[in-house]
DNA sequence: CTCCTCCTTGGAACCGGTTTCAGACCGGAT
DNA sequence: ATCCGGTCTGAAACCGGTTCCAAGGAGGAG
């Protein structure tokens, strides 16, 4: 009479041990005092039936899942992987498990939030590199679902972000200090559902130029989606301008790679004839020796997880934007201006 | 009287619409016939209360979650990310959502399986680049949980894998054809919980040498964990041998990168003085122009998802190992033997 | 007008756990 | 012997849905 098909239920265990279900539950959760002899009988029954409690039933009863959800765009954002690793790390010593949900389109984003916003799939939510619609923020608050925004800013959620204006300025100043005067910029047109940090980086670029007394040339400022080949196209346009730039600041590493490819195709040497700087410092950047502004990707995830855990523990989390430090990483794609 | 705190339940909707819960459920699921006027009343109540059904309660009742789980090692295996992308792609047009669980240690692996093996967290399971313990395979079968193994082989599960012996042979033959005779090999010592494909690649290496009439030199065959710096150490040993190899076949791209770093540190030029070939063709490989044996990472995930969906649809899935094709990708880290 | 369908609907059982609450049982004190 | 307190224990309510089943009501046929 072995329980071959399907899984045993708590009632089966109770029956076999000759006790009530409440007692089995108590043994399972180590709750109240159960007489040692009884406990042993129950444990024997559990072993004999190869029993494991249903987590779904448990969740329903406890109103708790011990899962935290993360919604983020995988594909459109290679840096997201690094952030997830930080989240995993931040969660690793906690009893919470992680459920990752990929949003690569607006439609998927809606589905992701529908999945989580009622608060019964996960006990907490990390929203990474994507901007929750206003209605969802509302719903999440109503559900009492703790939520942290990573790589994005929203006035009514705790956020982890970086100073994009400062970062854009940092990148551009580096080029200026190398003697460059003709500095172009490739910005990132974010999809609808993503936070638009690119605008701020562009503002930082403009500010650095102004402070150095260099005019902002509209024909040097372009914008396109983050895709590598799109950036390559834009860079090609810039580099075939009659008065071509000697340096290009790309709003992301991916776009910087596109720029490098364009330069290679045109036979323009980097960094001798052209300096290129990116933003993010994704893993690949060190392999191709790209100069870039490093933002702490891993750390952003870790910190987000940390704040979420604090909220889950019932301790208060301030609703404010926490800025992580940026760092200029000089490698081999930037050098002195050839014009200098 | 707005429902400010907590979420509305189906009973609230029923009460407000003046109908029974069964009717609300029918409207929600578009099941049996509901009179249009009644349906409208229910829909109004749903809107007014901002109601969304609890997925947990739904799961419990339906014994179905519409989620598929994936357990895989993130950190120890950069190629895993690529496989996940394939899985996401394969699932994208299905009604199933994906829950990713990271296993970077044996302990985490146990937890992952405990989470899924009862079959109530997810309707199906994809096990990627990690080998489920025998007891778990048993339990998964008992729970009737469809399960596909990706990048691993187990006699009682449908598997997606590659011909590692053939791949090792392919890589080594490429080096032989370039005139190399002193060919070393760096194998991968897998952690306990991972499938040991490295042994097969080593066997392929040996077979290729034998077929070419080249003796297998024990001092040319080393093994270490997959970590980059470990491989760098091993490569350094190999390259400081009195009779140093002119070519090295690394069992993974990560280890090939370690080898390249070792060569650079020793001032040995690649490919003029040393040829290096890897295995996997992870994304970075194309950036550093690494010659490698490509295994279809993305495709393995996509195909695994496809098989799982078939199983979930109730159609039979053969318990057999499906081998995906390998391809030699020649880039710029291999060249003619300097000895030739 | 009556009877019989068919359509629509609500009550209640069920999914598998947790927890409240009250009662059974035990030993020790009076 | 009786009473009291504390320890263990099980029945039942509950979490929030789905669905079986029986019943009410409307409309058509006889």
What is this structure, in a nutshell?
With 340 residues, chain A is α/β, with parallel strands linked by helices. In chain A, 43% of the residues lie in helices and 16% in strands. Chain A has helices spanning 10-17, 21-29, 36-49, 55-62, 79-91, 106-116, 134-142, 164-177, 198-211, 228-239, 253-266, 283-287, 297-312; strands spanning 67-72, 97-102, 124-128, 147-150, 159-162, 183-188, 221-224, 247-250, 275-280, 291-294, 321-324, 327-329.
List keywords for this structure.
12 strands, six-stranded mixed β-sheet, 43% helix, DNA-binding, six-stranded parallel β-sheet, homodimer
Describe this structure in words.
The structure is a homodimer of 340-residue chains. The mean pLDDT of chain A is 92. Chain A has 13 helices and 12 strands. Chain A has 340 residues and is of the alpha/beta class. Helices cover 43% and strands 16% of the residues of chain A. Chain A has helices at residues 10-17, 21-29, 36-49, 55-62, 79-91, 106-116, 134-142, 164-177, 198-211, 228-239, 253-266, 283-287, 297-312, and strands spanning 67-72, 97-102, 124-128, 147-150, 159-162, 183-188, 221-224, 247-250, 275-280, 291-294, 321-324, 327-329. The interface between A and B is large, with 44 and 45 residues.
């Amino acid at each position: 009479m072995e329980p071959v098909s399907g899984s045993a239920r708590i009632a089966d265990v109770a029956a076999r041990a000759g006790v009530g279900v409440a007692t089995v539950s108590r043994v399972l959760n180590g709750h109240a005092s159960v007489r040692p002899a009884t406990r042993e009988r129950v444990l024997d029954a559990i072993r004999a039936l190869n029993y494991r409690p249903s987590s779904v039933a448990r969740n329903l009863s406890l109103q708790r899942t011990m899962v935290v959800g993360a919604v983020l765009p995988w594909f459109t954002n290679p840096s997201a992987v690094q952030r997830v690793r930080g989240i995993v790390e931040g969660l690793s010593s906690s009893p919470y498990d992680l459920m990752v949900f990929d949003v690569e389109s607006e439609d998927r984003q809606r589905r992701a939030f529908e999945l989580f916003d009622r608060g019964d799939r996960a006990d907490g939510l990390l929203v990474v590199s994507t901007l929750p619609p206003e209605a969802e923020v509302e719903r999440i608050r109503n559900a009492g679902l703790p939520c942290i925004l990573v790589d994005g800013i929203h006035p009514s959620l705790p956020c982890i972000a970086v100073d994009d204006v400062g970062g854009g300025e940092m990148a551009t100043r580096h080029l200026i200090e190398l003697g460059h005067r003709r500095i172009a910029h490739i910005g990132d047109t974010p999809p609808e559902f993503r936070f638009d940090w690119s605008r701020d980086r562009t503002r930082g670029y403009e500010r650095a130029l102004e402070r150095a007394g260099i005019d902002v040339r509209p024909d040097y400022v372009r914008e396109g989606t983050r895709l590598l080949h799109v950036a390559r196209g834009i860079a090609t346009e810039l580099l075939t301008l009659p008065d071509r730039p000697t340096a290009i600041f790309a709003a992301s590493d991916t776009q910087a790679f596109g720029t490098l490819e364009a330069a290679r195709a045109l036979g323009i040497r980097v960094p001798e004839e052209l300096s290129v700087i990116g933003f993010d410092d994704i893993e690949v950047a060190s392999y191709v020796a790209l100069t870039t502004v490093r933002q702490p990707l891993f750390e952003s995830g870790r910190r987000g997880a940390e704040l979420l855990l604090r909220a889950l523990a019932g301790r208060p989390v301030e609703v404010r934007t926490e800025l992580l430090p940026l760092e200029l990483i000089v490698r081999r794609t930037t050098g002195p201006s050839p014009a200098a």
